[in-house]
Structure formats: structure tokens, C-alpha cells
Amino acid sequence: MNQINLKTNDVSSTSSRTVRLCFYEPRAENEHWLNRIVASIGSHYVSHVEIMFEDNMAASIFAEDTVFFRQRSYANPYYRIKAFTVSPTSYDLMYDFAQRCADQQKSFSNAKMFCGPILGYRGSNDNTFCSEFITHTLQVGGVGFAMKMDAGRSTPSSLLGHMNSIETVCFDSTSFKLDLALQLY
Predict the structure, then answer these.
(1) Residue range 74-94, pLDDT digits in tens
(2) What is the spatial distance between Cα 32 and Cα 30, in angstroms, rounded to a whole number?
(3) Which among 154, 184, 181, 120 is positioned nearest to 23, based on CA atoms?
(4) Phi/psi class of residue 142: alpha, beta or left (left: φ > 0; alpha: ψ in -120 to 50)?
């Protein structure tokens, strides 16, 4: 009998895995003007989104950069963090996709970020912007609320809006940051 073994990034053997989306609220005094404009257009005042996995590996893309996949602490008080659970298979698919995009050094696209949400501009698959990348990652994992979204038209605010409409999403910024602080000591 042949068996298929899936590569897993398992930190524990559970029937569900936790994924967090980290939304940035540009509230610092010296905030870049672009962050403030992006946040003011949406209904949730967020300008950036990242995905974080159970091992604290996070993925996203910043303006004029490439997709990253690295450890992040989210100690910045301007991140709003929301968690939800997925199956181990969905988790692994998203983890592998995020890591692969970073390895491929997918680049940032100003044209897609500015024209995608408004005009539906698609551009090249070789470049992306934060909310398009995160939406694609969620779709690779089959996450229900993301499957209904058009990734090219996605914004951090629209992602947060879809998450807010799902009952199984829990807000965990405070508890997550407290747990992180206790781990450091």
C-alpha cells in the first residue's frame, strides 16, 4: 500500500491550527502619508496586513520591497491582531505558499496597489501588494471568507471587514501581546 505523506510545519498535533492576520493602524505621529491615505479610504482605518503562523513566522510585502517570510514579534502597539483556526492541511498549504513566494522574491507593485482595488487592474503575477498577497495565501488554504474575495481588489480594510463578519474569528491582540511579553522574560 502506498502512503502519501504531507510535509507539515506542525508545532503540535491538533485537529486545527491557528492563523493570525495582523492589521496595521497608522497612528504614529511621524506616519508616512501613504499609510494615512490608504487607511482613511477604508472603513476600518488600517493600511497594511500580514499573516502570522503558529511558529511566529510572518509573511507579507512592504512598498518597494519583496515578499518576506520571517519571524515577527508584533510588539508595535498599532497592530490589530485577529486569529482564526484552519485544518492542518489548509495551514500547511498557506505556510508553504507564503514561504515559496518569499523564496521567489515576488516584488511589490505600486500600479496593482493603486489601480487594483479601484479599477480591477491585474498586472503581472510576478508582483503583488500586501492585501492581494494575503488574500491569495488564504485562498490557497481554502479559507471560507477569502474564497469569495477578488484578491486583486482586496484592501486591508476589506479583509478586516470580511473577518469581522465571521463568528469564528476571535480578536486576540491583547492576549497575544501579553503572551509574547511573558515569553521574553
Answers:
(1) 888 899 999 999 999 999 999
(2) 6
(3) 154
(4) left
